[in-house]
Specification:
The complex is a heterodimer. Chain A is mostly helical. Helix content of chain A is 77%, strand content 0%. Chain B has a single domain (2-100), classed as 2-Layer Sandwich (Alpha-Beta Plaits). By secondary structure, chain B is α+β, with helices and mostly antiparallel strands. The chains are: A mainly alpha, B alpha+beta.
């Protein structure tokens, strides 16, 4: 209960709620688009660097390798479950369901960052290699969802003007993958010594920048919800809440099997429970253009992201504690 | 003044490279892409500031060319719009320097 209250009253969640409320009340407040993109790149650089430095200090062993393999396998599996649930419980067609399912197998890097803060506030430690796990979990769900979608009739027609390389470029070289992996490698090469020289920019202001970014996320989520909620039926909205819980439970199983520490387990659970709204929507516009963005974007950004941020994080920390009795 | 055709295509940003390729293959090698700010269509209101991925952003592609080039582009653009969100219109316009189009 203490963790739930501490998360809810943390500045990042309160700024998110401020943005969400302002957008729902039709406030004209905006954060300039280019500035918001700069904030996103800053946050990804910062967590990539910190993860890289942790790896340079010997934070990468066989255990981490097994976690990475399990996380990739989980990311392949989650869209299959999500697709089945969507087809069984909602009226979404095959293409809309596959595109939505891809979002729930992939991850949200902002939820990951917010979880890192909440886990630290709960007095738990996390490992740097989980940044690499986050980057690795971006892509498999997209592949999985495309395999599912291409089984439906008419989905294999080629789109005029398309070429073979464009989807691969978008999926493998999207901004979050490039910045996260790139910063991770830079942090690993430069180590603690190099990090000290840039810490005044990438470490100290991190919390404040995160507040700014969460304010913008609140505005985006609120506007998305206001514009797109009519497209979502009750079954689809419910999916946006119960699917993260299913994913989180499966990730808890993976964490327990790998003998992860409590903080690491909480972070892996959060990663699995989060839904993408940056990398996957762009890939879906290229690969499955007939899928409706008003459904998958509204659901992942307007329903699942706020749920995870406000209620999910304390729940996932509690779950991690429950599956790792006695671990730090 | 000389008569030419002006092709105006509203299309989602992610599909703009595909549309550009079609225009270039049809001989319409001069075109301009402008960002769109917000709008309403398909029962949904959209605006640039609601989507972190910018994948739902829309752009406007404007190209002016001879009738033969525009006609060559139309069938492929029609196929493109079978998959992607967009609106296409063609209008007759007057240009000052016909050798450029």
């Amino acid at each position: 209960m203490d963790i739930a209250l501490a998360t809810l009253l943390s500045p990042i969640v309160l700024f998110f709620l401020l943005g969400l409320g302002a957008a729902l009340l039709k406030s004209q407040m905006t954060i300039p688009e280019a500035f918001a993109k700069g904030l996103a790149i800053y946050l990804m650089m910062s967590i990539g660097l910190k993860g890289g430095v942790a790896i340079s200090e010997g934070d990468l062993g066989w255990d981490a390798g097994f976690v990475m393999i399990s996380a990739v396998a989980l990311s392949f599996l989650l869209p299959v479950i999500a697709y089945g649930l969507l087809r069984f419980t909602t009226r979404l067609g095959a293409v809309d369901a596959a595109a939505t399912a891809a979002h729930y197998g992939s991850i949200s890097i902002v939820t990951f960052v917010a979880a890192g803060q909440a886990i630290a506030a709960a007095g738990l430690e996390t490992s740097g290699y989980l940044v690499a796990v986050a980057a690795l979990m971006e892509v498999p769900a997209i592949i999985s969802a495309l395999i599912i979608a291409h089984r439906s009739p008419g989905s294999q027609e080629s789109v005029a003007g398309s070429d073979r390389g464009e989807l691969a470029r978008e999926v493998m070289l999207n901004a979050s993958v490039v910045v996260l992996i790139g910063s991770l490698i830079i942090g690993w090469i430069s180590g603690e010594k190099g990090m000290k020289t840039i810490a005044p920019f990438f470490v100290e202001p991190f919390q404040g920048v995160l507040c700014l970014f969460l304010l913008d996320m609140g505005l985006s989520a609120g506007r998305g919800l206001r514009n797109g909620w009519r497209q979502l039926g009750p079954g689809t909205i419910a999916f946006g809440i119960y699917m993260p819980l299913i994913s989180g439970l499966l990730a808890a199983g993976v964490a327990a099997l790998n003998g992860m520490g409590t903080g690491d387990a909480a972070l892996l659970i959060t990663l699995a429970a989060s839904a993408s709204y940056i990398a996957v929507p762009a890939a879906m516009r290229l690969a499955l253009p007939k899928a409706r963005p008003s459904i998958y974007l509204t659901l992942s950004l307007g329903i699942t992201f706020p749920f995870n941020l406000i209620l999910g994080l304390p729940l996932y920390i509690w779950l991690a504690r429950a599956i790792t009795p006695g671990a730090a | 003044m000389h008569t030419r055709h002006r092709l105006e295509l509203f299309i989602e940003r992610m599909a703009a490279p595909r549309a550009s390729k079609i225009l270039e293959a049809s001989g319409l090698t001069g075109y301009t892409i402008l960002p769109a700010i917000s709008g309403f269509g398909g029962k949904t209101r959209w605006s640039r500031d609601t989507d972190m991925s910018a994948s739902s952003d829309m752009v406007v592609i404007i190209s002016i060319g001879a009738d033969a080039q525009v006609q060559a582009a139309l069938s492929e653009l029609e196929r493109l719009l079978g998959s992607h969100i967009g609106v296409l219109s063609v209008a007759e316009v007057k240009v000052l320097r016909p050798d450029r189009f």
